[in-house]
Amino acid sequence: MIDLDSALSQIEKDFGPNTVMRLGDSPRQQVDVIPTGSLALDRALGIGGLPRGRIVEIFGPESSGKSTLCLHAIANAQRAGGTVAYIDTEHAVDPIYAKNLGVDIDNMLISQPDTAEHALEVADVLVRTGKITTLVIDSVAALATRAEIEGDYGDSHVGLLARLMSQAMRKLTGTLSNTNTLAIFVNQLRDVIGGFGYGPKETTTGGRALRFYSSVRLDVRRIETEKSGDEATGNRVRVKVVKNKLAAPFKQAEFSIVYGQGISREAELIDIGTKLGIVKKSGAWFSVPDGDESIRLGQGKEQSRLTLAGDPALADNIEQRIRDTWNTPF
């Protein structure tokens, strides 16, 4: 019978160093993250953003802000010097909107594949290059298998996409970890048909594999339409971290998405600052204490938001005060 040390030496010779190691041999590595564009969501995630080297699923109803969240993550990855790729299975990405959110569209790789097999194969090849920081597949619900594309209307293709996704998750998980690539899968919700009157009424598409392999799952919901007078200016969005393998799950974050501009950093600074006492509200007026003086932002949240948008230094000051109060580096 071969002894353990000889076995470990043989394994290392055959498969490379660190194939088998003792759990306590080295301290846990710090997880690299990509900020989401929302200060509140970064804090709710517990690590300051979306983890690289992992799979993240962002799901929710239509027009809830899922793609906006992805574009902000892509913009932040590019600002950090990373290369990004967007697999647009819905054929709906808007370059003008992406540019407004800070995405460098000239350097963003994009693919609009016709089949699910094509999309997942492109994703696999891109990740294996080791050069991609963030990969987005938008969306799983729009993935159609080759059999479905080539078949007739009314043909049954039960379980094909689920099996394909299961295979893709098994192939991608290790490669993503080795290349430190963040993969974001956008998904939609479907009503659960049948059942016995209890349990969840909604489910995501593409089977259970994506839910199982995801390190983080974000449930994105639009909770109200924000207005300035009678004019709609954006949506109020709530994101719940329903799964988190890197920090405590089930935390929530709320923020505003302004039409044509994306997540409003300034509105979020006002919301969080007011809760923490950094921004003062008196009646409809918002102000920021500054020593013995007070800097008036404006009457109403929208006017105050515009004031901060025109004064980046003041916005940075408020953000730093928030971070100092939270006592978090991110």
UniProtKB/TrEMBL annotation:
Alphabetical list of InterPro entries matching this protein: AAA+_ATPase, DNA_recomb/repair_RecA, DNA_recomb/repair_RecA_CS, P-loop_NTPase, RecA-like_C, RecA-like_N, RecA_ATP-bd, RecA_C_sf
Biological process annotations from GO: DNA recombination; DNA repair; SOS response
Keyword RNA-binding assigned: no
Subcellular location: Cytoplasm
RecA family profile domain location: 30-189, 195-268
Recorded GO MF terms: ATP binding; ATP-dependent DNA damage sensor activity; damaged DNA binding; single-stranded DNA binding
Record's keyword annotation contains Transmembrane: no
Main location: cytoplasm
GO cellular-component term (any): cytosol
Keywords tagged on the record: ATP-binding, Cytoplasm, DNA damage, DNA recombination, DNA repair, DNA-binding, Nucleotide-binding, SOS response
Pfam family membership, one: RecA_N
Domain of life assignment: Bacteria
Family: Belongs to the RecA family.
Purpose of the protein: Can catalyze the hydrolysis of ATP in the presence of single-stranded DNA, the ATP-dependent uptake of single-stranded DNA by duplex DNA, and the ATP-dependent hybridization of homologous single-stranded DNAs. It interacts with LexA causing its activation and leading to its autocatalytic cleavage.
Protein name according to UniProt: Protein RecA
Provenance organism: Mycobacterium colombiense
